[in-house]
Every structure is written in structure tokens, then in C-alpha cells.
């Protein structure tokens, strides 16, 4: 069966997740590689792009809470970059989040990772400032969530609102 240039997308489950290891080795070094491999085995959802039966790209996705989705890692094999694989995986992640009722999507990237930042920006993400109004108040501030995102020095937090906050419930007995 022929696959288009950016491949077909599948879930990687259980031992099959090991098929993504070459992508992570290609894409990350040092402590990032260690953490990406660990996250590959523990994260809720792994989406993979296949070309010719090989995993050429992977997205490691988590729900931090019912309203918040997090792209832990997005990576594409060096030989398959600039063919739309990363964009396809990110579009798929966003569609999955929207379908599941997620209202905010976040991702982190090193401040000098031009490829990653350009990709997220092309999909409507923007840099989240530390002092920003919290997501529950309608902003993009990640109050109470940053510690679970494993954001390290030199990284920027990127965020995109996918849906508005629901109107606050009226106080009991109030008008
Ligand atoms: C970031 C990464 C996932 C992008 O994957 P990709 O498949 O090459 O991206 P795409 O081909 O889908 O590119 C989509 C858009 O992203 C931007 N982009 C991608 N690579 C870029 C680069 N090297 N320089 C500038 N912009 C880039 C462009 O806007 C591009 O659109 P265009 O091709 O129409 O100009 C890939 O470079 C990668 O795996 N890097 C190493 C791992 C990493 O840093 N991951 C992100 C942090 S978790």
C-alpha cells in the first residue's frame, strides 16, 4: 500500500513503542534523550508517522488535566525532516485534543530551536510569559502545571488556546 509523503499515523502501544527509539536518538542528546525515552514508555498517548513501515516521526502526548493537553516531545528522523511530517503530527495532536475537550495546548522548546518554534508558531502557538493570566481565567498562564512539564533552563513555554473557558457557574443562591 502506498503511503503519502508525510506517511500514515498510528498509535504506538506497549512494546511497539520501542519502534520510536531511533527517532528519539536522532532528535535528542544527553539528558533530553534520556527523558524522552523514559517519557516514551510512560506517556498516555504516542502517535507515530510511518513511511514504508518505518517510524519516521513521533508525538508524545499527555493530558495534564481535563482542560490541558501537553506535547511532551515531537520529533522527526533527520532524513525525513522538511516533508511535513512534524506538521502532520502536530495537526493530529491538536485535532485529538479538540475532540477530547481540551481547551489549552502547551509545548516546550529550547529558545534557540528555530525549527520547533517555527513549527509551533505556524500552528497558532505563542510564547507564554511567566506572569501571564492563568488559563482558567482566560489567559495562557500555566499556573500549577509547569512542574509537570519538565521545562528546563533555556526553554520557552508555548501555548495555544483551543476553546474558550466555559462561563463561571453562578454562585449558589445568587442572581
Ligand atoms: C521540529 C521538528 C519536529 C520539525 O519536523 P519537520 O517534519 O521537519 O517539520 P515540517 O516539515 O512539518 O515543517 C513544518 C513547518 O515547521 C517550520 N520548520 C520546520 N523545520 C524548520 C527549520 N529547520 N527551520 C525553520 N522552520 C522550520 C516551517 O514553518 C515548516 O513549514 P514549511 O516547511 O512550509 O516552511 C524536527 O525538526 C525535529 O525533529 N527536530 C528535533 C527534535 C525537536 O527539537 N523537537 C521539538 C522539541 S520537543
Task: Describe the fold and architecture.
The chain is of the alpha+beta class. It has one domain (8-161): Aminopeptidase, CATH 3.40.630. It has helices at 21-27, 30-42, 85-99, 114-122; strands spanning 8-11, 45-51, 54-65, 68-76, 104-110, 126-127, 155-161. α1 packs antiparallel against α2. The longest helix is centred in the middle third of the chain and has 15 residues, at 85-99. The structure holds coenzyme A. Residues 27, 73-76, 81-87, 109, 113-116, 118-119, 122 line the site of coenzyme A (COA).
Outline the fold blueprint.
Layout: E1 8-11, H1 21-27, H2 30-42, E2 45-51, E3 54-65, E4 68-76, H3 85-99, E5 104-110, H4 114-122, E6 126-127, E7 155-161
Parallel strand pairs: 4-5
Antiparallel strand pairs: 1-2, 2-3, 3-4, 5-7, 6-7
Helix pairs in contact: 1-2
State the gist of this model:
The protein is of the alpha+beta class. Helix content is 25%, strand content 27%.
Portion of residues in beta strands equals 25-35%
CA radius of gyration is 17 Å
The DSSP helix count reads 4
Could you name the CATH homologous superfamily?
A: Gcn5-related N-acetyltransferase (GNAT)
Structural class: alpha+beta
- Please indicate the count of domains: 1
Amino acid at each position: 500500500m502506498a503511503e503519502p509523503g508525510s506517511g500514515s499515523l498510528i498509535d504506538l502501544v506497549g512494546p511497539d513503542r520501542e519502534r520510536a527509539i531511533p527517532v528519539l536518538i536522532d532528535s535528542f542528546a544527553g539528558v533530553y534523550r534520556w527523558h524522552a525515552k523514559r517519557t516514551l514508555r510512560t506517556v498516555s498517548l504516542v502517535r507515530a508517522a510511518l513511511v514504508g513501515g518505518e517510524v519516521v516521526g513521533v508525538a508524545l502526548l499527555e493530558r495534564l488535566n481535563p482542560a490541558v493537553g501537553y506535547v511532551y516531545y515531537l520529533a522527526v528522523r533527520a532524513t525525513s525532516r522538511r516533508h511535513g511530517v512534524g506538521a502532520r503530527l502536530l495537526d493530529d495532536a491538536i485535532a485529538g485534543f479538540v475532540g477530547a475537550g481540551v481547551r489549552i495546548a502547551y509545548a516546550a522548546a529550547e529558545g534557540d530551536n528555530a525549527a520547533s518554534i517555527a513549527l509551533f508558531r505556524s500552528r497558532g502557538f505563542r510564547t507564554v510569559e511567566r506572569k501571564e493570566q492563568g488559563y482558567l481565567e482566560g489567559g495562557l498562564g500555566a499556573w500549577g502545571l509547569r512542574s509537570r512539564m519538565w521545562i528546563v533552563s533555556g526553554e520557552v513555554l508555548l501555548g495555544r488556546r483551543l476553546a474558550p473557558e466555559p462561563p463561571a457557574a453562578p454562585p449558589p443562591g445568587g442572581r
